[in-house]
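pls design
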């Protein structure tokens, strides 16, 4: 959590982790609890009278700046302690300092470190956003990079590509599609982003991330080719995502896959994957508001970008969208003579047969599965493949002037593919003793709404094995230009007992093995201030919820705060509390309290849980018969959590 003021022994204390920040006149706890209102200590030093609302608003900005400054210093000192030669300035400039000296056995890590040097510097990224040039020029630059790497755009035609865009569910749709076609005995390639634990997850063959050896081989092959072909008129290396896109094309071509499922990075029209000229089929999953600085601030503007992947004569499919953006997709398709179809709901494909079983939980996954079935069916049909499912007799129909895709009887291969799809970090559940981790990388308003429905339904459908208190915990972070206040408000109906915030930083200091999760596109200042903002948003929502309104639940005692605990007899009198930790590992240590049989880190840093909210919460968590933890808001956060909870993913 936020570090206390750094005394003479500050290096040792910072390395251990610290509890709260101190101003000249009072300590400022990072934890926030509605129960603190009784003592008038909200936002002030424990036991001191709290400031008036106007006063509190006036000092908020200064408090955030001071808290961030203290934690930045603590992390910087911890990095020096862990790495010895690393300077404090390096820790201030980026989330992970330059790695330890290389060892002969670290070829894969060497490649990942070199790849990380292609990440766009945070300051430069902001400059590019302000001075963005012609997007079409960016696509032309990507074609030049492709040529310098030894390929032509025409070579990509041999990959029999399924190109998928969308705001929500495009990754899940791709995963369903790939697994369905793999069950036909086809050798599949799958390019997706972002990765959760290791960067090689982005490039898969037959559903599995390529091996470290294969990743290393193709990375250096492409890297050296680009180095050899540079001249004074061009930048020698493409940025991070473009490089991985080029590398994926090389891998798929040289490993001779039968098809490649390619997920768009951002948008569609000007995404670097859109140098693909002749995909076999295209798909558009559900649309929502995201990446507004790049794609526009309305669904219609975003739909225009997404429809940019349509190609003349290439069939395309979309799920049901709001009428406005659906009309934009329809017009984009008509302008270039792209046959665009609207997917019927999954129920239409289930008629006359047993219900389809989906490996991915959540009602929203049915829409993704319906799109995946149409993409796979169309691909098989275009490739004259046998056994693609019998078409059902139905009249052609139009909805919003779009033809409905034909319904068919899913084959056994299709059913098996939907049932066996693996896509970690999306509506994923890990049950570990008394802890149940609900992992979902939702990061837009509509996807968080879907995540909330999934989480609440999962809790309603569970079986209580024993009587006793149950606790709900939110672990949240949000990045980029997303409206975290809006996302947090959507999470309020889940009635969490604790809200925990931390950066997408697995450990306080990252070395060697953490190269896959290094991120140079944001500064340490930015992520620390962001976590403080999350906590402030949550506390304001908490204050509103404490007022008598539709959100309130009956008080447990006259004049007392409403309790959000699930337990019929809550073990403590405080209402929902909030805490900020400096990294994911510390957050998980507090949440799990050593009760997760797999996540058993070394003893936590001395004093890590000394804060009053953390100390009282630790007792609650230790006594609970069940702890339900929803991890959401960022796929990068989910990836960091999985890295710690599932060590096998790092092997």
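designed seq:
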């Amino acid at each position: 959590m936020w570090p206390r003021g750094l005394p003479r022994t500050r290096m040792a204390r910072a390395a251990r982790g610290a509890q709260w920040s101190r101003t000249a006149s009072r300590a400022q706890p990072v934890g926030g609890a509605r129960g603190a209102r009784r003592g008038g200590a909200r936002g002030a030093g424990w036991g001191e009278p709290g400031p008036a609302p106007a006063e509190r608003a006036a000092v908020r900005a200064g408090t955030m700046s001071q808290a961030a400054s203290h934690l930045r210093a603590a992390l910087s000192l911890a990095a020096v302690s862990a790495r010895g030669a690393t300077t404090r300035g390096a820790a201030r400039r980026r989330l992970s300092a330059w790695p330890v000296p290389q060892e002969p056995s670290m070829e894969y890590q060497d490649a990942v470190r070199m790849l990380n040097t292609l990440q766009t510097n945070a300051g430069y990224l902001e400059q590019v956003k302000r001075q963005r040039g012609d997007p079409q020029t960016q696509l032309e630059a990507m074609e030049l990079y492709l040529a310098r790497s030894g390929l032509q755009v025409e070579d990509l035609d041999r990959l029999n590509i399924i190109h998928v865009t969308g705001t929500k569910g495009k990754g899940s749709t791709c995963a369903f599609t790939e697994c369905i076609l793999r069950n036909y005995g086809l050798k599949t390639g799958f390019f997706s982003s972002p990765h959760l634990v290791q960067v090689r997850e982005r490039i898969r063959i037959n559903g599995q991330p390529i091996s470290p050896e294969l990743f290393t081989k193709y990375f250096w092959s492409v890297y050296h080719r680009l180095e050899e072909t540079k001249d004074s008129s061009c930048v020698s290396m493409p940025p991070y995502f473009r490089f991985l896109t080029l590398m994926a094309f090389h891998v798929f071509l040289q490993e001779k896959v039968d098809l490649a499922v390619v997920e768009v990075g951002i948008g569609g029209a000007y995404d670097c994957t859109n140098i693909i000229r002749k995909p076999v089929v295209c798909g558009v999953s559900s649309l929502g508001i995201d990446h507004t600085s790049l794609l526009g601030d309305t669904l219609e503007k975003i739909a225009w970008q997404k429809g940019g992947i349509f190609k003349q004569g290439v069939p395309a499919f979309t799920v049901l969208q709001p009428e406005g953006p659906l009309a934009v997709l329809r017009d984009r398709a008509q302008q270039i003579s792209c046959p665009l179809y609207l997917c019927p709901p999954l129920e239409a494909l289930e008629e006359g047969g047993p219900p389809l079983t989906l490996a991915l939980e959540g009602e929203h996954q049915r829409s993704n599965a319906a799109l995946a079935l149409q993409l796979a069916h169309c691909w098989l049909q275009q490739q004259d493949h046998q056994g693609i499912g019998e078409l059902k007799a139905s009249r052609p129909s139009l909805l919003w002037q779009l033809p409905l895709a034909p319904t068919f009887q899913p084959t056994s291969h299709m059913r098996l593919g939907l049932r066996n799809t693996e896509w970690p970090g999306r509506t994923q559940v890990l049950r570990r003793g008394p802890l149940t981790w609900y992992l979902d990388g939702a990061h837009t308003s509509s996807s968080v709404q879907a995540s909330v429905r999934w989480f609440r339904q999962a809790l309603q459908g569970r079986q209580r094995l024993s009587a006793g208190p149950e606790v709900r915990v939110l672990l949240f972070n949000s990045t980029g230009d997303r409206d975290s206040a809006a996302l947090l408000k959507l999470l309020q109906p889940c009635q969490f007992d604790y809200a925990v915030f931390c950066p997408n930083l697995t450990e306080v200091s990252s070395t060697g093995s953490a190269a896959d999760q290094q991120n140079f596109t944001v500064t340490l200042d930015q992520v620390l201030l962001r976590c403080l903002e999350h906590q402030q948003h949550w506390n304001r929502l908490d204050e509103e919820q404490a007022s008598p309104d539709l959100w309130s639940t009956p008080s447990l005692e006259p004049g007392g705060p409403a309790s959000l605990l699930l337990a019929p007899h809550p073990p403590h009198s405080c209402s929902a509390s909030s805490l900020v930790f400096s990294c994911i590992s510390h957050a998980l240590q507090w949440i799990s309290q050593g009760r997760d049989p797999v996540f058993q880190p070394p003893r936590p840093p001395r004093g890590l849980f000394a804060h009053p909210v953390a100390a009282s919460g630790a007792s609650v968590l230790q006594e609970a018969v069940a702890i339900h933890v929803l991890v959401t808001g960022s796929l990068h956060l989910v990836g960091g959590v999985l890295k710690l909870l599932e060590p096998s993913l790092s092997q």
